[in-house]
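User: Let's play a game. I give you a shape written as tokens, and you guess the letters that built it. Ready? Here's round one.
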């Protein structure tokens, strides 16, 4: 039996022109780590799309196997925390950016980067959630820590039809929040309502340059867009409210003023999924298994095979992907 497996390898020539190839690797080709995992499922995140298309400098080591998250089974381990046969999830830690990632049959990683797959979730379920859904849960947990409960008022979710937005809507609605979904794709209104959105607003309402303060419309928000959208969300957040910011689909800039912070006591909560401590990751995945409706999870995810990854990466950057894409390896 061959120990070789297919992988996507992104390379760059002397002129920094990027190329993407399907190659065969063996475990000897993998990078250092103390746990080797058979990759059973992965996903295509916006960051993966940027990496494969070269639309943004996500990859910082060449050549590289992209793919920032995976679920699978431990094949071998030199780490006392993990034994062969264990079911694990990995998100972040530079995997798919500086360390060979998920788009291969095997991944060798540090055991400290892994989280146990919660009981009741399959590898496919975990990747239907993926880094986008795990990030959405980190946002929800941050809002809860700040005291943003359903009784405080509506919560807005931007980039609503994307991966983070779709899962955030599903979680928040199940927890009893009145969710306002902001999307640039009005044709997805029915989908967003099925996930649990109570109201839909068009992206253009939040795209123009923000006033220092706008009418108070929500108690909190989950923002994956950045730029003018986040500035508008902040300007319309009610007194003492909070916004969890986790993305930059609309830009890395934030053209706002101090007004929401010093006149309304609004808080901007930064969410990082890549280097989050293990205890927070473990709690997020426990909450996902508990608070995410699996029927809704099925509705917001589509499944492709390994051969569909490159096309899906292009589509997600072009805004053609709704919800989550699961790759069954």
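Assistant: Ready! My guess for every position:
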């Amino acid at each position: 039996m061959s120990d070789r497996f297919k992988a996507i390898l992104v390379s760059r020539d002397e002129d920094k022109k990027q190329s993407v190839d399907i190659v065969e690797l063996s475990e000897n080709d993998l990078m250092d780590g103390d746990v080797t995992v058979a990759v059973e499922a992965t996903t295509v995140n916006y960051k993966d799309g940027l990496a494969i298309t070269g639309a943004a400098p996500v990859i910082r080591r060449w050549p590289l196997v992209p793919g920032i998250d995976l679920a699978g089974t431990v094949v071998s381990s030199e780490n006392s925390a993990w034994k062969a046969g264990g079911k694990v999830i990995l998100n972040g830690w530079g995997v798919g950016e500086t360390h060979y990632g998920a788009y291969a049959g095997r991944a060798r990683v540090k055991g400290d980067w892994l989280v146990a797959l919660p009981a009741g979730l399959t590898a496919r379920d975990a990747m239907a959630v993926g880094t986008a859904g795990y990030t959405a849960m980190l946002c929800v947990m941050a809002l809860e820590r700040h005291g943003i409960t359903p009784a405080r008022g509506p919560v807005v979710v931007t980039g609503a039809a994307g991966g983070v937005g779709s899962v955030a809507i599903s979680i928040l609605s199940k927890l009893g929040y009145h969710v306002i979904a902001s999307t640039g794709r009005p044709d997805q209104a029915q989908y967003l309502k099925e996930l649990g959105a109570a109201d839909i607003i068009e992206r253009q309402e939040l795209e123009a340059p923000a006033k220092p303060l706008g009418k108070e419309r929500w108690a909190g928000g989950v923002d994956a867009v950045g730029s003018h959208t986040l500035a508008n969300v902040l300007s319309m957040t009610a007194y003492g409210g909070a916004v969890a910011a986790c993305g930059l689909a609309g830009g890395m800039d934030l053209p706002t003023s101090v007004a929401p912070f010093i006149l309304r006591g609004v808080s901007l909560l930064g969410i990082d999924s890549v280097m989050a401590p293990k205890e927070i990751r473990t709690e997020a995945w426990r909450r996902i298994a508990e608070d995410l409706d699996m029927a809704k999870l099925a509705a917001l995810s589509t499944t492709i095979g390994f051969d569909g990854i490159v096309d899906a990466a292009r589509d997600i950057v072009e805004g053609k992907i709704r919800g989550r894409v699961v790759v069954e390896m």
